[in-house]
Specification:
Elements: E1 19-21, E2 28-30, H1 57-69, E3 78-79, E4 101-110, H2 114-123, E5 129-136, E6 144-150, E7 157-168, E8 174-184, E9 200-207, E10 213-219, H3 222-233, E11 236-237, E12 247-249, E13 251-258, E14 267-271, E15 276-281, E16 284-285, E17 289-290, H4 295-304
Parallel strand pairs: 1-12, 2-10
Antiparallel strand pairs: 3-4, 4-8, 5-6, 6-7, 7-8, 9-10, 9-13, 11-17, 13-14, 14-15, 15-16, 15-17
């Protein structure tokens, strides 16, 4: 599941959380290096692999404003200009919750009731999004709403959420406020790429179970080394995770690339909290990468023969 990395402050709604992994210190079970018989010539590592493009504030803001403009409301709804209705003031966001996020909003009036607007918005999410949930305000408030999640991601865009806030009109019908938050991927550092010349990769998993253990295998196949290098080189840089709450899972997967088996690793990548991947290149920590789909964990688990729930 692609994580949103977003939190609307002072706004109820679905909690959008990513899973996390927690490092553990355990006893070790290590096997001998494994060399597979890959057909063909070894392909260069870190040369043909393309790093995905980063996003930008301008790009994210254009998408956010487009989502606001194309929100679907019942017939007869009209864009509202002028001051914001006081009912929405307690719901004003206090600003993007991460450096790589932007917000856009718009106001409408609708002749439909709040229940009708909520039902219509739930059934007609904006293009490129999917309905997530309806939410109700506390008894002391009159605002209800609908949340949609971004599902179509232009290159460089990390996540997005659309919140349709609905309140009774002053005389009849409803007033509607649409808030959109869109996040983008920051640029990667060049040092995070697996460098050419790597001839061995050690894949390991640390499991903090009833009987903690480490399972590790070293591979020297050019095909395997290249495939794992391409996996890392194809990841985006992670948006800020400072404001996220993540569950702790007691499993960590680790890739260590070296010029030869037994040599000091040139680059180490390890799964971390909130679907991130921590990278250390030549002993120096780099900005986090993101792996919200858990591709590294599943790939490493398959290579090590580790069964769920550790996959």
């Amino acid at each position: 599941m692609r994580g949103t990395g977003l939190r609307r402050r002072a706004m109820p709604g679905a909690a959008l959380l990513a899973g996390s992994l927690l490092l553990a210190s355990c006893t070790s079970t290590t096997s001998a290096p494994v060399t597979s018989r890959a057909a063909g010539q070894p392909r260069p590592i870190g040369l043909a692999d393309q790093t995905p493009p980063p996003g930008s504030r301008t790009q994210a803001l254009q998408l956010a404003e487009s989502l606001v403009a194309h929100v679907a409301l019942p017939p007869g709804s009209a864009r509202l200009s002028g001051p914001e209705p006081p009912v929405f003031r307690p719901w004003d966001p206090s600003g993007p919750s991460a450096p790589e996020t932007v917000e856009a909003s718009g106001l409408w009036t609708s002749p439909a009731s709040t229940d009708q607007v909520s039902a219509f918005a739930s059934a007609h999410p904006p293009a490129g999004t999917r309905f997530l949930t309806q939410f109700l305000a506390p008894p002391s408030q009159t605002v209800t709403g609908v949340d949609d999640l971004l599902t179509t991601f232009p290159p460089g865009i990390a996540n997005g959420v659309v919140a349709v806030l609905i309140a009774p009109g002053s005389q009849r019908g409803s007033v509607v406020r649409v808030n959109v938050i869109v996040g983008w991927y920051p640029p990667r550092s060049a040092a995070e790429r697996v460098p050419p010349g790597m001839r061995a990769v050690t894949v390991s998993v640390t499991i903090a179970a009833v009987k903690p253990r480490i399972v590790s295998r070293t591979f020297t196949s050019a095909e395997i080394v290249g495939r794992l290098a391409a996996l890392l080189n194809g990841m985006n840089a992670s948006p800020s995770i400072a404001d996220r709450s993540c569950l702790a899972l007691m499993v960590t997967y680790r890739l260590a690339f070296a010029t030869t088996p037994g040599a000091r690793p040139s680059l180490i990548a390890a799964t971390g909290i909130c679907g991130t991947v921590a990278v250390v290149a030549h002993g120096t920590s780099q900005p986090l990468l993101t792996d919200q789909t858990g591709t590294l964990s599943r790939t490493a688990a398959s290579m090590l023969g580790v069964k769920p729930p550790f996959a």
